[in-house]
Amino acid sequence: MHVVCFDVDGTLVSSAGFDGELYAEVIRDVLGVELKADLSQYQNVSDSGILAEIIERFPDANERTRLARDVQGKFVECTKRYVADHPHLIREVPGAVALVEALRRSPKVAVCIATGGWAETAVLKLRAIGLDPSGLPMATSSDAVRRTEIMRLAESRATQGVITRRTYFGDGAWDKIAAAELGYGFVAVGHGVDHHVSYPDLRDLETILGQLGV
């Protein structure tokens, strides 16, 4: 079985811009902290991972728990409001839905989602582009902090069979690093990370399926 795993923001959904802006705004409003411009400076580039690193500066454990809950709750609400107010701005990365559906039809492929976003916001964005998350094995930042652990969970939810190949589609340097750590083949989407296998978007279905051996 070939496990093909996808990130969400910037890979399936053109949301990296507004998603990052909303996250930075919530961190600023709730914690009074400015998010680093280069997210790769954080140890774990996921919603829960970045938040955990930021709130380490607060000495009281109960306060950290409360602040984490407040940040997540406000971010989810802000994302819901943005999606409701700007439905025309929530778009698939061109070709994303067609690629996922083509892979799901293949008996040789187990498709899954592994995202550094929280579950509630990932589901919102996938539904907005026409992908039903209820039919997709998924792991998120709600499950784990480290992207590699998120990917392992997604894989385990996708198949219990013998895995012969693993591929991860992502758009960030942290995606490429996590894929390398786990022995996944990596496919870069967009122009955010340099890699020998890359596509500006996912429209070239025939070429991408051929590269995956499907």
TrEMBL record:
<dbReference type="GO" id="GO:0016787">
    <property type="term" value="F:hydrolase activity"/>
</dbReference>
<keyword id="KW-0378">Hydrolase</keyword>
<dbReference type="Pfam" id="PF00702">
    <property type="entry name" value="Hydrolase"/>
</dbReference>
<dbReference type="InterPro" id="IPR036412">
    <property type="entry name" value="HAD-like_sf"/>
</dbReference>
<protein>
    <submittedName>
        <fullName>HAD family hydrolase</fullName>
    </submittedName>
</protein>
<dbReference type="InterPro" id="IPR023198">
    <property type="entry name" value="PGP-like_dom2"/>
</dbReference>
<dbReference type="InterPro" id="IPR023214">
    <property type="entry name" value="HAD_sf"/>
</dbReference>
